[in-house]
């Protein structure tokens, strides 16, 4: 008989931090809660973002077929991919979390972000797809199951692009894009408490529904 557990499917960004994520998943995996890294193979010059979404969706379907509960989390560039899969399979996925993720292009992106978009066209297309197709279709019920986490300042991704109106947008008093590592190791309780208890008993202060 299969043992049911809650699985957090983690979609990494562009950075090469396999060792960090391997250590993080090992530290925070418990008997009934497991973190699985779902690599989507970002490649320089690649334009196809649909395959990346399909990779995450197929993994979700596989895990749900084994009677597991599934939530998704995207780090940085992985955020738009994770949310696209969450929306497509919203009846199968419990919650979605993004950390330092660019989710909109309608702002003045930093010089570094523009350079990254040029190097990774699939990343830019994924953000465009989320903003133009997924975001307008998100229901209020779906937004209640989304948590976005951002620092007060990010030198690569403008913090205003990390917010989803009507979702649970949480700001931590951290600075720079490297904050995502600090969030993983020192503020992961925010993520786990959101997934486990959702909005009813969040112990670290009320999650703000409006952008701050």
Characterization of the model:
The protein is an alpha/beta fold and 212 residues long. The chain has a single domain, classed as Rossmann fold (3-Layer(aba) Sandwich). The chain contains eight helices and six strands; from the N terminus they run E-H-E-H-E-H-E-H-H-H-E-E-H-H. It has helices spanning 18-28, 50-65, 78-88, 111-119, 121-137, 140-143, 179-186, 188-197, and strands spanning 6-11, 33-37, 69-75, 93-99, 146-150, 168-171. It has a six-stranded parallel β-sheet with strand order 2-1-3-4-5-6, with helices on both faces. Strand 1 (6-11), helix 1 and strand 2 form a beta-alpha-beta unit. Helix 3 (78-88) packs parallel to helix 5 (121-137). It is globular, with a radius of gyration of 16 Å. Residues 199-212 have low confidence and may be disordered.
Q: How would you sum up the major sheet?
A: 6 strands, parallel
Instruction: Kindly name the structural category.
Output: alpha/beta
Name the helicity range.
Answer: 40-55%
Could you name the CATH class? Alpha Beta
How do the SSEs run, as a string of H and E?
Answer: EHEHEHEHHHEEHH
CATH H-level homologous superfamily name = Alpha/Beta hydrolase fold, catalytic domain
Q: Give the strand order, joined by hyphens, for the main sheet.
A: 2-1-3-4-5-6
Enumerate how many helices there are, as a single number: 8
